[in-house]
Structures are given as structure tokens and as C-alpha cells.
Please model this.
Amino acid sequence: MRSRKTNSRRRVLIVGGGNAGISLSARLARQTHLDVSVIEPSSVHFYQPLWTLVGGGLTSVDKSVRTTARVMPEGVTWVQKSVVSLDPNAATVDLDDGATIEYDSLVVCPGIELYWDALPGAEAALSSGAATSVYSAQLAPATWERIRRLEGGTAVFVVPDGPIKCPGAPQKIMYLASDYWRSQGILDRIRVILVLPGETLFGLPQFAARLEAVVERYGIEVRYGHEVVAVDGTEGTVTVQDRSTGDQSSIPYDFLHCVPQQGPADWIKASPLANEAGWVDVDPATLQHRVYDNVFSLGDVASTPNAKTGAAVRKQVPVVERNLLLEATGEAPSSHYNGYASCPLTTARNRVLLPEFDYDGNHIPSIPFINLARERYDMWLLKRYGLPWMYWNLILKGRM
Model:
């Protein structure tokens, strides 16, 4: 089966109904000359940044979810199927039910996959309850239960090597847990270890320095330049490897927070749209594909070198909207994305650091006249209440 163009409106096909796909489709749906469709197999839509707060016991997981039908913009066709392959030369996308959809413009933004099996033993440990994670709506509530019940021992927090969505999340949940244990008077009975592949807590020096002070405040032991290479949930141990020497050691744990390696789906890696690393190969400024002019990508799966955050998506969406409309009329894309990303770092149960930065690592605060390079209660209120409200009521509706 192949869908056919039945009217003169330009067919825009968006793959992915997450933050990027829904907010972009809401903006494009206002263009009466466009026929906009979104391919999204899931019947539910999550605001994933809340999962860290769920894991910290500060909200419930039900606050992070809506039905996809509820967030799908009016006038947009929802195709509740999964993509199995695409052919940008024929301008077609193949679905898991055997159907093929043609398009005039394509936007690829399905998010990225979580590869739990890339860390030996992690899946079994998570399934048995010997480990937990805030990278899942199912596991985030269990994370809080494990934090709440721990009364002593060793707590290990894992950061994987390679790009991940919300790269600050492994530290956020660690600080929330440490602050809770401190409030209960038991932090001095818990050895907190962060296994970090990099050599710094954050890419911007002024924020790295602040986080070093936070780490010192909680007495956290940071294993810089190390990574966890295996988990044994039965024995309650992790194997840690020094990335420079290759030396390995074993750490017994009583609490383990895992973060999976992440990357594009296999059908993207196998497509002509992918670069050598498997990401959708776009110009980092225009977000247009480097080979296929009628293809754009944004969000976590795009090859842009910025941090993979919802804040980045918010700045990418209007760029893709403008450039797609220009390309549709035969004009060269002229709107540029500067790599903006933001990572609200929960350093305590009522404090947030708010770094904002571009491709060049410049700190570019969007709120003038206040110091965002220190822990702030007002930024905590923004993280806890303001951003979720803006997400559901403004961002997904294409109004921010």
C-alpha cells in the first residue's frame, strides 16, 4: 500500500511524536498549504525531564504523561505505526504494517534508543531490582523507593561513555539522593561514588567549579576517567575500568543507579540519511540534511554536536520550520541554530544550577541580571513547576 497525493498541498511527513515532532507539527499545521502527518507508534507521550524528580521523590510519574491523542495538534494526521525503513531517493517511508507513505518534505526526529544490553549484566540487575534508573517511566518510581529505604552502605551512580539524552541526569539524581540522605541524618553512613568517563563534571568551567563544591558538600567520591563495564546484580558488584590504563576493579554496592548507552534506531543507521556514526547527517546550523535538501532532522537523533536536551529542541523547532518552508519554495535555508542547550541541574531538593550554552561552549544566559552560575531556589521553582507547565501548554502547542 502506498499513500498518494490527492490534493495540491505539500506533504510534510514527521517521523517521531516526541517533543520535537509534536511542537514542530503544531507550528506547521498553521500553514494551510501543508498536509502534515506525524508517524508515532506510542499511545502515550512523556515529559521525560520530570523522571529525575520522580526518582528523587518530588513528584509522581503520572504528572509526566499524557495520551498522544491529547497532545497531537488539530489538523495533523497521526499515523500510529512504526518506521522500518526509508528511501530518500524515492521520497518514501515504509511502515511495520507493510504500508508505504510518500512525502514532499521529511523531518526525522524519533528520539534515540536506550541500549540497556550494551552494559553486561545491567538488564538482569534492573529486572531483578538489583539496580534502578530514572531513564524509564517504569523504573523512576522504584528509584525513589530504593533511595528512601537505603540506610547505609555504598551507592554507585553510573555515567556511560558516549552521547546520552539529558547528560546531566545521572548527576541530578545523585545530588537529590545525597541531599535526602543528608536530611535524614544518614549521609555519613553512605559512601556515594560517581563513575564518570570524562575528566570534568561539566563542560563549562564556571559550572564545573560549582559542581565540584556540591560534590565536596555531599562527600561524593568521583572516579574521573573511569567507566562501569559490567554489573553483577546477584553479587551486588560493578566492574569499573580506568579508561587510560585499562585496569579494572570491583566495587560492591548497596544501591546502583544505571544509565544506558544510547544511539539511533537501527533503521536510521541503515538508511542513506545516516553518517558514519549512525546519526542523521545534517548541517549543524540549518538542520537540513547534507545530501537530501527536502529532509531535515532535529532533536536527539540529529548529528548536531550540542547536548541532547529539550531546551535544544525548543530552539531547533523554529529553525526547521522556517528552513523547511523556504526549501519548499525553492529558496536556500537561511535560519540558523547556534547550538543552544540548557541543563537545569538539581543540586539539592530545592536548588538548581542553570547552565545555558552554545556550540562554542559560551555561557549564554537567557534571563538577564541574575547569576545563574550559582544554586538558586527560583530556578528550582522554574524546573519543578514552570517548565512542565510551559511544556504542556506552550511548547507542544508550538507557541514557545
